[in-house]
Structure formats: C-alpha cells, structure tokens
Design a protein that fits this description.
This protein is mostly helical. Among the domains are: 63 residues; 78 residues, DNA polymerase, domain 1; 60 residues, Photosystem II 12 kDa extrinsic protein (DNA polymerase, domain 1, Orthogonal Bundle), CATH 1.10.150. The protein has 15 helices and four strands. This is Competence protein ComEA.
C-alpha cells in the first residue's frame, strides 16, 4: 500500500502540474462563454413572410377548385346540373320544359321551371348568360323609319347608288355599317356601278335586302364602259370581261363559228363551261352588232 502513496519528486511535480491544469480549465470554463452569438430575429419580417406564404397557399387552393364560367341555363346537362348542386328532379323539370321547344329567359323563370331553392339560385344566377337580344334588346330607329316611312320610289325620286354615302345606305333595313362599307368598297374597286344588278356581287347581301335597297336607290349615273362586240371579239378581248377566262373565251368563239355568229346574247347560256349564274353581270360588257 505504501508504494501507492510514496512519490518521487518528479511524480509530485507532475501531480501538481495536473491539478493546476485542471483548476485552470475549470476557471476558464466558468469565466469564459463558449456559446455562439445568437442572431436576433426580425419578427415583423418573419410575420410578413408567413403571411405571404399563407396567401399563396390560399390562392393555390382557390385555383384548384372547379371553376364555373358564364353559361346559358337553357343548355344545362345532367352533369352540369349535378356539379351546380341541382337535384335530379330539378334537372328533369328543365329538360322537360326544353323538350317543348320553350326557353328560359330569366333567372326568375328558371326558378319557376326547376323549383330550385332561393339559396341555390343565388349561387347559380350570377353565372347565367342569356343572349344579348334577350338581356339588351335594341330597336334600330333606322329600321323603323325604313319600314314605316320609306315607300318604293320612282326613278326620279330614288338616290343615285353611285353617290350614296354609307350613312344613307344604312337607312335601309338590313344594311348596317359593315354592309354599307362593302357596297362602297365594291363601287370604288370597279370605278362605279354600271347597273343595279351588280349589287348581287356584294358579299352577304340577300335578295330581300337588295330588293329593299333598290326601292330607294338605283344607278342613275352608270360607269361608262366600252362594250365588246360579241361577234367580232378576240379571245384577248373576251378575257378582259369579268368571269370569262381563256377556256370560256375559246368555247365562245368556237360556238360563234359554228353558229355563224350570235343572234342573241342569251345564246351564251348554251356555251360549254359558261358561268350562267354570272350572265347578268357579263352582259354589261358585251353587245351585238347585227
């Protein structure tokens, strides 16, 4: 046992040095803080960031919800009605009503037909989209005036189609801004109308509208054209006529040779490949010298 407690001088110095080191480390640990500095948190900035994250999350949730676009309630299908919250009975009432070729023209009438609740109607009706002629009916004064006061006029009373303005043309029932511009554009393209029949060339004009137009307008100063003698014309001359190409011109001359000359312009209708539906226009550029 004695050997365990008997130390040499060197051993005592080592023990003393060890105790000194231990005490120094304990003092260092006690007096010196080894923890890192903690950054202060900007609570306002953090709250703003969290609020932005929540807002984006709500937006994403809203975007994932099924969207309802404006629709005409007359065309609700079984699936559409189901997604809107309608019962099968309510959908069937609407379909039976439409099967009679009847139309729902207001939210109130929709409720009367389907018997949906007020709360469901309040949810659906903001998306109802009826035709504009139902929701915003307009009566054109010009149309009323044209039907009520405009009676067919004689030649002297009519306005010249070659000088009429777009505003004047729009007084005719069936001619709006677009059609009046087309008429004037056609007139300018060919340097003026030769005859009333050329109105048939204006795209979109129906025979009824043309008839109403000619009750108030006519060509009084026709464009002057040098008509081509059908019995003397060459192929090069014939192809200058609207709607006559080289093939038709060749057949015209071929028939002229066989007939020893045309006796009437109507004989062109028997020419092979002749555009018979444009005959009245083609006649404006031809003549017959007997």
């Amino acid at each position: 046992m004695k050997s365990h407690f008997t130390f040499t001088r060197k051993q005592r110095n080592g023990i003393f040095l060890l105790i000194l080191i231990i005490v120094s480390l304990q003092a260092l640990y006690f007096f010196v803080s080894f923890s890192k500095d903690v950054d202060t948190v900007d609570k306002d900035g953090l709250n703003k960031f969290l609020f932005e994250i929540d807002s984006l999350r709500l937006v994403e949730i809203e975007n994932r919800k099924p969207k309802v676009y404006p629709f005409n309630p007359n065309y609700i299908t079984d699936y559409k009605g189901y997604t809107l919250g309608m019962s099968n009975e309510e959908i069937d009432r609407l379909l039976q009503f439409r099967a009679q070729d009847k139309w729902v023209n207001s939210a109130k009438e929709f409720q009367q037909v389907t018997k949906v609740s007020d709360s469901l109607l309040a949810t659906m009706s903001p998306y109802f989209k009826f035709p504009e002629w139902i929701t915003n009916p307009k009566i054109k004064k010009d149309y009323i005036n044209s039907n009520a006061t405009h009676q067919p006029k004689n030649f002297d009373q009519k306005q010249d189609l070659n000088t009429a303005t777009a505003t004047q043309l729009q007084r005719i029932n069936g001619i709006g801004e677009a059609y009046s511009k087309r008429i004037i554009k056609y007139r300018e393209k060919y340097g003026g109308f030769i005859a009333d029949v050329q109105l048939q060339e204006v795209y979109g004009l129906s025979p009824e509208v043309i008839e109403r137009l000619l009750e108030q307008f006519t060509v009084k100063t026709p464009k002057q054209v040098e008509k081509i003698d059908l019995n003397q014309a060459t192929i090069e001359q014939l192809v200058t006529v609207q709607y006559i190409d080289y093939e038709v011109a060749h057949h015209i001359i071929e028939q002229r040779t066989l007939r020893e000359g045309y006796k009437s312009l109507d004989e062109l209708l028997k020419v092979k490949s002749f555009p018979t539906n444009k005959f009245e226009i083609i006649k404006l550029y031809l003549k017959l010298n007997q």
